Amino acid sequence: xxxxxxxxxxxxxxxxxxxxxxxxxxxxxxxxxxxxxxxxxxxxxxxxxxxxxxxxxxxxxxxxxxxxxxxxxxxxxxxxxxxxxxxxxxxxxxxxxxxxxxxxxxxxxxxxxxxxxxxxxxxxxxxxxxxxxxxxxxxxxxxxxxxxxxxxxxxxxxxxxxxxxxxxxxxxxxxxxxxxxxxxxxxxxxxxxxxxxxxxxxxxxxxxxxxxxxxxxxxxxxxxxxxxxxxxxxxxxxxxxxxxxxxxxxxxxxx
Length: 255
Known about the structure:
Layout lengths: L1 E3 L8 E5 L5 E8 L2 E10 L4 E7 L8 E6 L4 E8 L2 E10 L4 E7 L9 E6 L4 E8 L2 E10 L4 E7 L8 E6 L4 E8 L2 E10 L8 E4 L12 E5 L36
Antiparallel strand pairs: 1-2, 2-3, 3-4, 5-6, 6-7, 7-8, 9-10, 10-11, 11-12, 13-14, 14-15, 15-16, 17-18
């Protein structure tokens, strides 16, 4: 499902989920080897992975799940390969789909959630601190032929910028984000659509699981690179109707 410092040992560990049972397992990784494994518990299969980050503000890698039936968001705090707490942080309409985790607000050590409206292409940031939604900001609309490719520090160290790719042309576009605002955009070039995104490189963890400096450059085998324009559709701020009302805790993992 993802990577993070789940062991609290300052490393990048891997988290997997059993597609039949909903069981969640952490694999500790160091020096290109799996050094340990721990079962975290079982969560209903209607709860889908939505990223890992420092949602608790404790400098750890926590797991964010989303209910595929009602859009509810649940954070599971993880330390030393154990779930230490769970918190329900609200419900957002299912038209809003996961588009990455990063420090979009600029608040030190914060991990925020970026969602995109599947009907309009609108982008919304949800600031998260202490396992609570603390703010929301609509940052614009991009045409739906531009799809999520990743979050990385493209325009500056420790930044959390959004990379989109055009499904028709293969063009990559980066949207610089700071202070919950789009501050710039640039074309990264075009790669043939038969080349699919391989992922993002990660630097060694610096201690704060939510620090986007852990995310490095885009890794991709690039053939026939074209540095031509390919800029995405202009941004158009239109307020969304996402529901962030608080609800009671829905699920607790069990061994």
